[in-house]
Amino acid sequence: MSIDLSKMPKLGFGMMRLPQTDQKIDLEQVCSMVDRYMEAGLNYFDTAYVYHQGTSEIAAREALVKRYPRDSFMLATKLPAWEIKEQSDVERIFQEQLERAGVDYFDFYLLHSVEDGANYETYVKYDCFDWCMQRKAEGKIRHFGFSFHGSPELLETILDAHPEVEFVQIQYNYLDRTNPVVRSQMLYEILHERNIPIIVMEPVRGGMLSSMPPEIEARFKVRQPEKSIASWALRFVGSMPGIMTILSGMSNDEQMEDNLHTFTHFEPLAEDEFAIVNEITDELMSMPQIGCTACRYCCDGCPSQISIPDVFRTINTLRRYPDDWRSKNFYSGLIQRSGKASDCIACGQCESVCPQHLPIIELMKEAAGILDQN
Questions:
Q1: Nearest-angstrom CA–CA distance, 68 and 66
Q2: What is the mean pLDDT of the chain?
Q3: What's the CA gap between 167 and 3, in Å, rounded?
Q4: According to the CATH classification, is domain 5-286 in 3.20.20.140?
Q5: Contact of 243 with 218, CB cutoff 8 Å
Q6: Half-sphere exposure of residue 320, counting CA atoms within 13 Å on the CB side?
Q7: With contact defined as beta carbons under 8 Å apart, do 172 and 200 qualify?
Q8: Residue of 122, 100, 80 whose CA lies nearest to 25
């Protein structure tokens, strides 16, 4: 069953950063956001086995599956390599996902975070590509693909070996086009040349492209005073051919409304707007920022319970605004409910799951020296 791009919503609802109250998903607000998204005529929801410590798929069941006809929405989820220890785990996880989400099938099913090394080797070792095609033949999966955080070379190798793959999900935004680790422009070009539909994750780079230094934001506002800073990032991705759906991990009503406005009144970037984006990309790339997208994969297994993305958020803010006292205040509140940067024991668990391949241990040492001095 081929994918009809004309029927896919340009904006997808990513369920990795759902609103929370007392560190639990705020289901009432999620329901409200789902309703608003569906009212706008959009219907693609993206979750995963590991999102929100395993509760995102349950939230999808409660806020979406129980409240809307099954044929009115599309639901995507993912199989995590790092949870597979033996062959039987593949089917066990899948059955658990069906139960959590309350569905008989998934519209889109992905091998999660395929990349060079352990993850890809795990999927190969346990024949996950063939297993997914078997589930598709049974009607348990409608469309099969994978999310990708690896090298362009690996991407081509996989696509050559597995022509059955119907789509690929990649991190793509204007800042990561030339990022030597992500190399998203090369990934995009490989997929586009092969006419493989592309789902985009991190179009606003975990929120990094929604808030910038005032002098940079001003240049966006001079050209489009009524549009948000985040909308520029979404319009950039939406202007590229071959993009099937753009995922946004919306955490509140304000983000939902802004994104709906961007896509229900979609305007591709004009030539002079591309020029502005390219100039600002060069400036942002010259700033020493930690490239964390706040996916929080690093947090679940941290023995010191450090909220690593929030530590990096503090450091990034201090790098841009060294005299801003609010960053230190934010960190003081953070460590009342999570570990300090100096609590890091350098176990490496975080680095093993980081999609951005950040040197987290060294970065935590830097953060401890800045934030945990008496």
A1: 6
A2: 92
A3: 9
A4: no
A5: no
A6: 21
A7: yes
A8: 100
Which sequence spans correspond to the domains of the chain? 5-286, 308-371
Q: Is 260:248 a contact under the CB 8 Å cutoff?
A: no
The pTM score is: 0.82
Q: Are 246 and 11 in contact (CB under 8 A)?
A: yes
Which of 154, 143, 171, 156 is closest to 76 using CA atoms? 143
Block residue for tokens 């071959």: 242
pLDDT 10s digits, 322-335: 665 667 777 887 88
Residue range 176-185, pLDDT digits in tens = 887 777 789 9
**Six-digit token pair at 103?**
């569905």
CB–CB of 298/353 below 8 Å? yes
Let me know if 73 is exposed, middle or buried by CB neighbors in 10 A (0-12, 13-18, 19+). Answer: buried
- Residue whose tokens read 């999102």: 51
- Find the distance separating the first CA and the last CA of the chain, reported in whole Å: 62
Query: Considering only CA atoms, which of 232, 76, 197 is closest in space to residue 141?
Result: 76
Q: Residue 47 is which amino acid?
A: T
Contact 173, 282 (CB under 8 A): no
Neighbour-count burial for 77-87, b at 16+ CB within 10 Å, e otherwise:
bbbbbbbbeee
Helices (H), 126-270: 128-137, 152-161, 184-193, 214-223, 229-238, 253-264
Taking a C-beta distance cutoff of 8 angstroms, is the pair 81, 118 a contact? yes
Q: Which amino acid is at 281?
A: T
Long-range contacts of 157-160 (CB under 8 A, 24+ apart): 158/114, 158/120, 159/190, 159/194, 159/196
